[in-house]
Write a structure and sequence with these properties.
This protein is α+β, with helices and mostly antiparallel strands. It is 34% helix and 22% strand. The strands form 3 sheets. A 5-stranded antiparallel sheet has the order 12-2-3-13-14, covered by helices on one side. Strands 6-7-9-10-11 form a 5-stranded antiparallel sheet.
Length: 280
Amino acid sequence: MSDPRPGSGALPAAFLAPGTSSFTDFLHDYAPELLPGGRALPDGSVAAPHGTTIVAATFSGGVVMAGDRRATMGNVIAQRDIEKVFPADEYSAVGIAGTAGLAVELVRLFQVELEHYEKIEGTSLSLDGKANRLATLIRSNLGLAMQGLAVVPLFAGFDLEQEAGRIFSYDVTGGRYEEHAFHAVGSGAMFARGALKKLYGPQLNQEQAVSAVVESLYDAADDDSATGGPDLARRIFPVVALVGPDGYRRLPDDEIGALVERVVAARMARPDGPSAVPLP
């Protein structure tokens, strides 16, 4: 069965044939040029905005993910209020680091991939299955990554089977690694992880976990020029999202703003931040 004539109003045969539950696989067969890795780049270097830093931490009721709001292009601030944390589906979140435009496109494709699977199969993927699907999408971008346009997201969600929050990191080749307790990606990741080493503890509740990731982003911005700190004048604060048994929820800006103001006020007296969390 051949595709109908353009303008006839009929769907192409590819849309009517039974096939895979993967939207990405379908697109690869039908219109591969629409995939992020399916487009050729011109010769020479490409300057594009990059986004950092993303942090995540588990707590007894789920997982929290947060991202700063700065995108840079070389030594220039390309955008002050970019959003880097998104819902992947009802029970998972994804944060982007790397080439901002490609990363946002990859997140949107990932969201469609999960929704398409659920519609075709009548059930959602397991959290491990979602993490594996994201790894496949990253791997398909390898050609662009080798040209300097890498996308390295952080994925986290609430595992309904284990009834716990889980975190997954990736490398540019699509390698998938489960992280435990907390993790960070992006240019400020080293400083954010250093802060979380002293602030994180398995006994943290939701409020304490949110405070810990916000403090870690402050420390990352203090040492990494590509990570944006809280902008009290413009009221630009980190994006913070929670994923638990009730699903994904982004915390409102006024709630994060109040927390940020307390953090900044405390840093006026103690610039290096709070001490390590005492052991139980």
